[in-house]
Amino acid sequence: MTSRLKLAAALAVSVALGAEWATAPVEAQTLKAEYKISTVVGPPFPWGLAAQRWADIVKEKSGGKIAMKVYPGSSLVGGDQTKEFTAMRQGVIDMAVGSTINWSPQVQELNLFSMPFLMPDYKAIDALTQGEVGKKLFEIIASKDVVPLAWGENGFRELSNSKGVIASPADMKGKKFRVVGSPIFIETS
Q: Which residue, 36, 82, 102, 157, is the most exposed by fewest CB within 10 angstroms?
């Protein structure tokens, strides 16, 4: 197990149990029967696999005392991916392996990652998430009563069509696109 996975597991346990966990044994804690992890994708996708691995590590590290169950496909929010962040704030969902696209209606600053052609490669994304911008975004998310643990990557948003190559914004002129339900995508399409 990598150090990064161990850290994520430790942070997950800390978030689930609150700050007191760091000083009190698990036996002294009042635990929920189950902590709910939401993903917007199904189990075989990388986010679904990561969420399950997270739950498995927490179970292992807590000696089986902490149960985390993965709920795929936005099932805890009736399939509406954009409600996941709000559901965490309301306590319906305990944790999520979530998307900046889906959370951006509630955290507008996350629209940064949806700006077309802004980041040319993974090195640019890493510079943002691992630098001051990433720290500031974590502060903004935390100010909305959700504790962010780590950044993950899901690849670039890609356009596909049967009419021709799209290499610049000009190549999109006159074409219609189906987009995710985030306001920035709707407004720019």
A: 157
Residues 173 and 135: their CA atoms lie apart, in Å, by 36
Distant-in-sequence, close-in-space partners of 40: CB < 8 Å, separation ≥ 6: 47, 73, 74, 81, 84, 98, 99, 102
Q: What is the pLDDT of residues 94-136, one digit of tens each?
A: 999 998 988 998 999 998 988 877 888 999 999 999 999 999 9
Strand order in the sheet with 35-39: 68-71, 35-39, 95-97
The C-alpha atoms of residue 97 and residue 84 are separated, in whole angstroms, by 10
- CB 44, CB 93: distance < 8 Å: no
Tokens found for residue 123: 């090195």
Torsion of CA 45, 33, 31, 63, to 10 degrees: -70
